[in-house]
Specification:
Helix content: over 70%
Radius of gyration: 26 Å
Distance between the termini: 57 Å
Strand content: under 5%
Order of helices and strands: HHHHHHH
Number of helices: 7
């Protein structure tokens, strides 16, 4: 069974990777265009409509399972990485495996963490209107972009002399 599972995992990963590419989208668009162009020749019959409906239904049905498999594997890998970070840091080990708790229990853990948030952040978020929150996110993005900009020659020289 392990061999079949590995084969499915490899196939699901390959299909997910391929279907996420622009070429796959363009192929689907081309199929729809060709189907639409054949409409007048088929006199827009029920069979003509059934072809696209059946094809898209089958593809959608199969893709749901492939996408779910890929997401499950990705989530499991992320959880394992986060658990390892918790184990190797000073974080509390109670957080390991909380993805297996109920929604209510996870909510309680979140509330526990929220209690440790700085009061200024709590107050600003509570008072902010939707527009203000949008402005805050925009300002945060701009600050992140500014921090990510490459250093100028003079900044690089200053960094070398201070080191």
């Amino acid at each position: 069974m392990d061999k079949a599972s590995r084969a499915f995992t490899a196939m699901a990963g390959a299909v997910s990777t391929w279907t996420g590419r622009p070429s796959a989208f363009l192929l689907c668009c081309l199929i729809v265009i060709v189907w639409a162009a054949t409409g007048p020749m088929a006199h827009y019959s029920d069979t003509w409509q059934l072809i696209i409906n059946t094809g898209t239904t089958i593809v959608t049905f199969l893709m749901v399972f492939l996408i779910q498999n890929t997401q499950n594997r990705d989530n499991a890998a992320i959880q394992a990485k986060l658990d390892e970070l918790i184990l190797t840091s000073k974080a509390r080990n109670e957080f390991i495996g909380i993805e297996h708790l109920t929604d209510t229990e996870i909510g309680e853990m979140l509330e526990l963490c929220e209690k440790h948030r700085p009061d200024d952040v709590k107050r600003v978020r509570a008072a902010a209107t939707a527009g203000e929150k949008r402005e805050m996110r925009t300002a945060q993005r701009k600050a992140a972009r500014a921090a990510a900009k490459p250093l100028t020659k003079s900044e690089k020289a200053a960094a070398r002399t201070s080191a």
